[in-house]
UniProtKB/TrEMBL annotation, chains A, B:
Pathway: Amino-acid biosynthesis; L-tryptophan biosynthesis; L-tryptophan from chorismate: step 5/5. It comes from Syntrophus gentianae. Tetramer of two alpha and two beta chains. It is an enzyme of class 4 (lyase). This is Tryptophan synthase beta chain. One of its GO terms (cellular component) is cytoplasm. GO terms for molecular function: L-serine hydro-lyase (adding indole, L-tryptophan-forming) activity; pyridoxal phosphate binding; tryptophan synthase activity. Residues 77-410 form the Tryptophan synthase beta chain-like PALP domain. Its EC number is 4.2.1.20. The beta subunit is responsible for the synthesis of L-tryptophan from indole and L-serine. PANTHER family: TRYPTOPHAN SYNTHASE, TRYPTOPHAN SYNTHASE-RELATED. Its cofactor is pyridoxal 5'-phosphate. The lineage of its organism: Bacteria, Pseudomonadati, Thermodesulfobacteriota, Syntrophia, Syntrophales. NCBIfam families: PRK12391.1, trpB_rel. The keyword tRNA-binding does not apply. The gene is trpB.
Length: 453, 453
């Protein structure tokens, strides 16, 4: 019988990341300066990121070596196992084989350390002493806290207020790894104080938290900012997921018909899918689908435009699908993936028809997540529940079409620190929220005035 | 370079559990009936456990086959990886090599499912429809909730009140797996109601929760009780840990000088160590050491006597090191491992000089745990912090003696659902509690009146 999981030895870990910029049929439009709207060069980014990371951001080299020091840390939990979800398959009773990469085996419980480790390493190499970042549900903040500690950097995390309050364990985890975690908007930055004065009841947003983290980085000594998603270098570092999955599937002679990931900023989706997009560009038949929340439908409803990454318009303008930089999902949404935009790379792939996207209601995602936990054991993060809902949906389609399908998806993390969301779901405190059409119209109108790529 | 971790393929998983009863130089004294003080036979245990499990409890067969249905579930996370703790070694700067079994990779985050899965399976086979159990910190209750769900059994968990209140995520996790979790003492049992009436402020104890779970099991239809530690069959099922570790160490040509585990009821310590005890009985040089909290010093201070497993004296009398069945650790103790007794097998091994034991203060255990998290990444469960403190201590000894040592220990689980304990530690709310000598004297006196094995 085919094994339940495919493991790789330490020495089988991929030694290079894959850079899709080398293979894109149409290059990305350049980021624009927030004030002048002129293309930004590496030097414009230098106050925010160290130059060795900026080089990765703009590189068009196809393969980039993973430094030994990074590999050493990766090996703490990588290569991550590839699983066959036999029990979930039985439950679905559809003609599908389901494989998943279990990124929940990392110490932080998600895929986020894949990017946090190299970022901490490169900042350290560049002489930086302190990192700032933002976090929504807390996965990224936890990962960067751990990575900073491992390379001897200080770390401060601005955590979106609503999550900070709903998920106290996340702060505790970051503290355990020696980092500082503040509720955002905070009193520590000008933009934070300004928003608190203007909107004392704001639940916060990733856009606000990013503004705070960047302000802190550019106004503090020896400090840089680290972003957990969206940018090219983040997706680059995450490709280790898809590269490992390809090795593992090859071992058992399988190639997927469908590759799936959940989509917030695009880091885990990009991580699993970009090596398969490469195959697709080269002519291989494979469907690649991102799953997002219907209350933050960036890919399925957001226009493609230049937009800021943050509320305070401190970041460059990025060419991406966006709901507008002031978009804040309804507080009732408990599933994470709340970012208003999505990676330019993912946006470009959608425009080029190389990937597709589907949106799911939160009740369907938690329903899928609970079914998963009760059959496969592992409790998925609320974010991960979105891709599980997409798998359920894909299985239903396969059954209707009477077509056999092999699905590969990225199980981006476990939900053991997010159990309050499950508690809300199981006790009936989540509602079947539907984004009001007037809100969509407001978004479309707001983005209409942004420059077009 | 030696790899950071040694993984086994699915098909390398051990197919049998190891039963130390076949090799004990002196057999265990039999359990006694709680009322008559006569040895109990299998039939006396039948209202509590199904007969197929009772057979394992009393078996003297050296190797017991693991059923295919159990192996299938084990393979969800087993074989668990064996790690080399290189970063922690660097921190200690002592002549030690440290290997650990990472049992935190299970869906429940600890070693407990190793026993929960076969228990749910055997109960199901025996026609049982519902399981009851108790849980302290929550590791066992979580594991049995998951296992029950996997085999279609109902499950109710009585959780020690102080933990129920300190660790709300544990209840949420059990609920997510479809189980019911009640604060103990509860209103659901006679003994629970009685204790609530008599001691309205009791923090609860494992002894009380066990009484409740057993009362529920013996007074409900198609229901049996499942115990997560102490008994022979539990340690038997846990030997999969040590058996895998032996295979993994053999692959890299290493044999440990010291094998360590933390000790509550003895399940994870027994799990890692019994296969090595077998080697030791056969003449191999290996030191085997259990680590326990100094506020519940069963092995290091508790006399060896017959004692009840629970407060209400419903269980048979077991021959074990015990602090008395009414012993309740001070509520300030945050580290788990609160049981008043310990497995008869572990007690017997200590009597025979085949193992040793050391006790650690809670501040030292959390100090070790935080150092571990900040170097190795994975955040250990508070219980696991005890064995890490023992490793720190052993490394110090090795340094003092100028002697090279290979240490193997069981990293019994992660602490991601126990972060409130870390929070209490990091914010200075834990005290360096020392068990008062008068309490020790009270214990010695209380146990003096129990029958002697």
């Amino acid at each position: 019988m085919e094994p339940l999981k495919v493991v790789l030895e330490d020495n089988e870990i991929p030694r290079q990341w894959y850079n899709i910029l080398a293979d894109l049929p149409e290059p990305l439009s350049p980021p624009l300066h927030p004030a002048t709207h002129q293309p930004v060069g590496p030097e414009d980014l230098a106050p925010i990121f160290p130059m060795n990371i900026i080089e990765h951001e703009v590189s068009s080299q196809r393969w980039i070596d993973i430094p030994e020091e990074v590999l050493e840390k990766y090996l703490i939990w990588r290569p991550s196992p590839l699983y066959r979800a036999r029990n979930f398959e039985k439950l679905l009773d559809a003609p599908v084989k389901i494989y998943y990469k279990n990124e929940g085996v990392s110490p932080a419980g998600s895929h986020k350390p894949n990017a946090a480790i190299p970022m901490a390493y490169y900042n350290k190499q560049f002489g930086i002493k302190r990192l700032t970042t933002e976090t929504g549900a807390g996965q990224w903040g936890s990962a960067l806290s751990m990575a900073s500690q491992m390379f001897g950097l200080e770390c401060r995390v601005y955590m979106v207020k609503v999550s900070f309050e709903q998920k106290p364990y996340r702060r505790m985890l970051m503290n355990t790894w020696g980092a500082e975690c503040l509720s955002s908007p905070s009193e520590m930055t000008q933009i934070g104080r300004q928003i608190r004065a203007e909107y004392p009841d704001t639940p916060g947003s990733l856009g606000i938290a990013i503004s705070e983290a960047i302000e802190d980085a550019v106004t503090s000594e020896n400090t840089r900012y680290a972003l957990g998603s969206v940018l090219n270098h983040v997706l680059l570092y995450q490709t280790i997921i898809g590269l490992e999955a390809q090795k593992q599937l090859e071992k058992i002679g399988v190639y997927p018909d469908v590759v799936m990931g959940c989509c917030g900023g695009g880091s885990n989706f990009g991580g699993i899918s970009l090596p398969f997009v490469r195959d697709k560009i080269a002519g291989k038949q494979v469907e690649i689908i991102g799953a997002e929340p219907s209350s933050c439908p960036t890919l399925t409803r957001g226009p493609f435009a230049y937009d800021f990454g943050d509320l305070a318009k401190m970041t460059p303008l990025l060419p991406m699908h966006t709901l507008g930089h002031d978009y804040v999902p309804a507080p009732i949404h408990a599933g994470g993936l709340r970012y208003h935009g999505i990676a330019p790379i993912v946006s470009q792939l959608l425009r080029l028809g190389l990937i597709g996207a589907r949106a799911f209601h939160q009740l369907d995602t938690f329903d899928a997540g609970v079914k998963w936990a009760r059959s496969e054991g592992f409790v998925p993060a609320p974010e991960t529940c979105h891709v599980i809902a997409a798998v359920v949906d894909e299985a239903r389609r396969a059954k209707e079409e009477g077509k056999e399908k092999v699905i590969l998806f990225n199980w981006s993390g476990h939900g053991l620190i997010d159990l309050t969301s499950y508690d809300a779901y199981l006790s009936g405190n989540l509602v079947p929220y539907e984004l009001p059409e007037e809100e969509i119209q407001r978004v479309l109108k707001a983005v209409e005035n942004m420059p077009k790529p």
